[in-house]
Task: inverse folding
């Protein structure tokens, strides 16, 4: 991943369609990024945009959130887009909090909803 911009994409189950649609709408902009995604989210993004460069990690609850957190801590992630579902209880909520905390600690741009993600991707690609 050295030398290229890297974006992490994560979406809770009820937000995976929104993430796939976000990727489809922004496919040209995302083509300039290396994408790292949790398992199912990465699969959905690849289904919507097969030409994007996506590295799929484990599913979020099975360690994918921690894998992305480690990449943030080592400086390999430049931006985090995490479509959270605030209306569904999450058994791995502490993982989610840890991941967002790392994004804040390492001061990387982070979007937790579509409107913020749209603005960030447009701003960072100019």
Result:
């Amino acid at each position: 991943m050295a030398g290229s911009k890297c974006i992490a994409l994560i979406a809770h189950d009820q937000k995976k369609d929104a993430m796939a649609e976000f990727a489809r709408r922004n496919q040209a902009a995302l083509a300039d990024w290396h994408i790292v995604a949790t398992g199912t989210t990465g699969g959905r993004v690849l289904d919507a945009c097969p030409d994007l460069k996506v590295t799929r990690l484990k599913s979020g609850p099975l360690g994918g959130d921690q894998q992305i957190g480690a990449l943030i801590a080592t400086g390999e992630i430049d931006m985090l887009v995490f479509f959270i579902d605030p209306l569904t209880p999450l058994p791995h909520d502490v993982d989610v909090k840890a991941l967002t905390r790392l994004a804040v600690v390492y001061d990387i741009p982070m979007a937790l909803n579509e409107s913020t993600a749209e603005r960030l991707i447009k701003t960072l690609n100019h």
Notes: Helices lie at 16-25, 27-30, 39-48, 64-73, 93-105, 114-124. The chain has six helices and five strands. Residues 13-124 form a domain with the Rossmann fold fold (CATH 3.40.50.1380). Residues 93-105 form the longest helix (13 residues).
